[in-house]
Structure to design on (548 residues):
């Protein structure tokens, strides 16, 4: 073995981690890494147009594959741009690693004003990661990357970052055979499994609450098997959607805060909660009561008891724990009348949401699900149609196919869709508002460059529809900063080298959506919301006022 550069070490470490794609922008402070990837092969760089988008892509890639998502940025401006993406990955408990450059070591910390100097970059990155490493010796690069990867992949996933000064990327070191021992999943304690199994066995009215941890642990099959054995209704959080197919008889959907379904939770003897933090959005800002006994399964001790105190705590990997519970539980199927009532209330809740949607949005939603394959990715940005029906009602029928900004940020929709499409290779639709879309519109070029199967559905109401509705409801109809000039989105898409459609009405939507699915590469539908029947509630009132 001879000598190799620090850039080569980064490449070899990524190969040892099984990395197949990286997302980022080439820079003077990461060129050696990109050159090593180019020479080595086996890793495909996805050239993004903004570092924040690159981190969102790595995030969705990780969510789609349950693998490590990697982004590479420059020091200083590039790393700063990436902060929002790391923030979202942390909120979403996503397996994301960012590798960034830094100025040459002789200048680091001297405040001399060299190019892209970032004296406090480590402190900045530590604020949005669980583990951050800054390398000082070329021979330490691989170990730093492996330590961060081990942290990301152990327990509840959280993002991490590695900073490598550019002179170390050029420096030579002895070649070495790199091997990364993958962290082993946490095995639950047999005694706690026994306690949980006994509690489930003593109950007849059981409900299951499945969070995003079920998805990231690859535990969907085990969840469904246990639910079927217990004949227990299964609620999911928004991040847990797809843990059980939403066309399954036992799937209650992400309706934990829907008043019509509260009796199911209120009347249950036992709730089995798996892979969840009981976030504010899923609990009505923690106002949801869980009167029955609570079994909480998670890999992160920090989230157990944080918002709801469990009667039994089981610390362990969701897949292993659910399988162990299924083996240990001799429970008979649950109360048939309880389940029948839960299904009845679920169907009523779905019908009520459909009524709130208005006929045109209902047709658009049903058209999407009818035409999309089962393994298609459905991505929702923080926008009106997502809040009304995208996050709640459009059926998610497979795990790792549902994506949304968990932090409720506007704008990540398109980059999340690109990352999901790269990771899965499947058709991907993004439900996006025009206001949020402008934050990442440049990534249309990324989708076009790689001919990705992404369909961007821009629901265009000329501004920030969610904020417009909130302001209108709370401030006597006054609105501020929510009406925006927007470009010809279909024209922009065409200029980017993809198909663009102007859509007015549901018939035009079906025709354009079908054509977009059948064509190769990305497409964009610019949907004029003024041409659609108004939504119900405050969103509909604002739409009606604008139409008048």
């Amino acid at each position: 073995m001879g000598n190799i550069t620090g850039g080569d070490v980064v490449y070899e470490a990524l190969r040892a981690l099984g990395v197949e794609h990286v997302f980022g922008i080439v820079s003077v402070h990461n060129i050696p890494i990109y050159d090593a990837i180019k020479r080595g092969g086996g890793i495909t760089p996805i050239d993004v147009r903004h570092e924040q988008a690159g981190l969102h892509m790595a995030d969705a890639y990780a969510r789609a594959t349950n693998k490590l998502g990697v982004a590479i940025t420059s020091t200083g401006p590039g790393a700063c741009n990436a902060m929002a993406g790391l923030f979202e990955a942390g909120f979403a408990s996503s397996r994301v690693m960012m590798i960034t450059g830094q100025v040459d070591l002789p200048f680091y910390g001297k405040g001399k004003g060299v190019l892209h100097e970032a004296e406090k970059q480590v402190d900045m990155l530590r604020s949005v990661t669980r583990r951050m490493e800054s390398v000082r010796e070329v021979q330490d690069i691989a170990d730093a990357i492996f330590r961060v990867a081990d942290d990301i992949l152990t327990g509840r996933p959280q993002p991490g970052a590695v900073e490598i000064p550019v002179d170390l990327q050029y420096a030579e070191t002895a070649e070495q055979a790199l091997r990364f021992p993958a962290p082993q999943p946490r095995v639950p304690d047999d005694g706690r499994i026994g306690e949980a199994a006994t509690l489930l066995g003593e109950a007849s009215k059981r409900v299951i609450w499945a969070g995003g941890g079920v998805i990231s642990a690859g535990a969907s099959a085990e969840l469904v098997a246990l639910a079927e054995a217990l004949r227990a209704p299964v609620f999911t959080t928004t991040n847990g959607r797809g843990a059980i197919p939403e066309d399954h008889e036992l799937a209650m959907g992400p309706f934990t805060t829907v008043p019509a379904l509260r009796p199911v939770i209120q009347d249950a003897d036992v709730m089995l909660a798996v892979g969840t933090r009981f976030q504010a959005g899923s609990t009505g800002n923690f106002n949801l009561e869980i009167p029955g006994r609570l079994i909480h399964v998670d890999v992160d001790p920090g989230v157990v008891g944080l918002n709801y105190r469990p009667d039994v705590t089981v610390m362990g990997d969701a897949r292993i724990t659910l399988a162990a519970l299924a083996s240990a539980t001799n429970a008979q199927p649950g109360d048939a009348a309880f389940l029948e009532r839960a299904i009845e209330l679920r169907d009523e809740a779905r019908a009520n949401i459909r009524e709130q949607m208005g006929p045109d949005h209902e047709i658009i939603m049903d058209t999407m699900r009818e035409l999309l394959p089962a393994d298609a990715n459905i991505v929702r940005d923080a926008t009106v149609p997502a809040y009304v029906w995208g996050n709640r009602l459009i059926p998610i029928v497979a795990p790792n196919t549902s994506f949304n900004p968990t932090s409720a940020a506007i704008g990540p929709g398109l980059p999340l869709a690109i990352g999901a499409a790269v990771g899965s290779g499947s058709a991907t639709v993004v439900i996006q508002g025009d206001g949020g879309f402008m934050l990442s519109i440049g990534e249309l070029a990324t989708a076009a460059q790689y001919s990705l199967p992404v369909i961007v559905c821009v629901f265009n109401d000329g501004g920030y529809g969610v904020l417009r509705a909130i302001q209108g409801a709370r401030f006597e109809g006054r609105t501020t900063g929510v009406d925006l000039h927007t470009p010809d989105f279909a024209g922009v898409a065409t200029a980017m080298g993809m198909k663009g459609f102007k859509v007015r009405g549901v018939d035009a939507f079906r025709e354009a959506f079908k054509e977009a699915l059948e064509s190769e590469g990305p497409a964009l539908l610019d949907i004029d919301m003024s041409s659609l029947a108004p939504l119900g509630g405050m969103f509909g009132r604002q739409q009606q006022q604008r139409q008048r």
Notes: The mean pLDDT is 94. The first strand starts at residue 3 and ends at 5. Residues 434 and 460 are 5 Å apart (CA to CA).
